[in-house]
Amino acid sequence: MMKKASLTGVCLYTAGALAQGACRDILVPRNPAPVVASGWQAQLVAGGLTKPRSIQFDSTGALLVVESGKGISRHRFTDNGGTCLHANHSHMLVELQDLNHGLALSNGGDILYASTAESVFAWSYNARNAAVTSLPQTLVTNMSNNDLVTRTLLISEKVKGKLIVSRGSAEANRDRAAVLSSGLSQIRVFDITNRSASESPYNFNTDGDVLGWGLRNSVGVAEHPKTGGIYAVENSEDGVTRNGQDIRENNPGEELNFFGFLDEAVNANASAINNYGYPHCFAVWDPSEIPNGDGLGVGKQFAVEEDNSLTDETCESDYVAPRLTFPAHYAPIDLKFSDGGETGYITFRGSFDRSSPVGYKVASIAFNSATGEPLASADSKAALRDIMTNVDNTQCPDKCFRPVGLAIDSKGRIWFSSDSTGEIYVLQRTGENSEGKFVLPEGGPTGDGSGNNNGNGNSAASTMLGWETRMLSWTALVGLGTWLVL
């Protein structure tokens, strides 16, 4: 059954050859237009989605989006150059309400992976026909736990047939996270080479290789394109005390962690030493606010409750410190590298447990493309370079975009989702000396948080022709040779 709905289509480009007027149907954000750093141009290209999380391009250039609580949608855009993109066709590829975050494609692009809090699923996928062509196969299971339900997925490009799965743990399970066999707060690697549908799913707690553990919630995981080094961004704990004293405002810091290379020998026994500290040790962001913190500096690990068996010294000697540390409560969600490996892009969804809101931005980190290492030192407080921010963080989270998933297209443009506003944005470099610009209709609104004129179907400016929703059913259409969502 065909069903009409409104989706956001957008066009824009004002750098150089094309004038702003050459891009029609420019969308207006739901909230006040973001601030864009110099050297960048940004635009809203889609809206009206349901909690869009992870995003990824398939082999045809279509954008796949996990809509949390709904399924996976597929979007095609007319590309008029720069950030002038107009959504011309969208449909539901898979409808499965339990899908909430994880998304990946096989090295050949013909298998689609997605995750729920409990399991990782795989479908055969025909990008040219824009359809899944099989029933879902369960690859990994036994991952349920209360809270922190995202299960981030990454398919290695350097070591074929390796699926990386990141799983956090709830605060109620924090003590169990200190036990390797629990499977909580870990990143594991699974060999999915030629895995048949008749084989039993992997059990996350007992199968796979442990890439790292003691990780509260590493939502963003990425592979450096030149070296193959695996990095992840970590959401640290809220409401932390130190020896009974509240230090939650500016500590602990969020983390960028390094896990080595998949082509090195990785096994569960050897990985027992790859513990990054949770729930015992955390990274310092503001040393001045940590009582009895003599000798602690940015990026050092500290013990939340010092005793005879756990001290700051044992945190430093027995656990792996972050490669970089970010301000507390920024909530990093995704990490993607530029093709050359010289830049890492990070989305920060924003604070939860802080008196004044922080985060809510897209930022970058400079890397040495040859070594795959960040240029900033481990104790740096200046590693991040803001690209796009909200105009007034004091209005967050209610009147802000909240960046989540990242994808980089074949032209090097940065796409990201904002789950709280149901939007997709595009960023493009325009030159270091150019003024930062967020493209809006000439003389039009700038977004007021009301939800009007924002591409959510409430205004004529936001309506996209041809939005088509096709509900998932496993009915084969004779003559097409594929399973389609109808």
UniProtKB/TrEMBL annotation:
Q: Pfam family of this protein, just one?
A: TrAA12
Matching entries from InterPro entries are given as: 6-blade_b-propeller_TolB-like, Beta-prop_PDH, Quinoprot_gluc/sorb_DH_b-prop
UniProtKB keywords: Signal
Q: Where is the signal peptide?
A: 1-19
Name the record gives this protein: Soluble quino protein glucose/sorbosone dehydrogenase
The Pyrroloquinoline quinone-dependent pyranose dehydrogenase beta-propeller domain is annotated at 34-429
* Segments for region (Disordered): 436-459
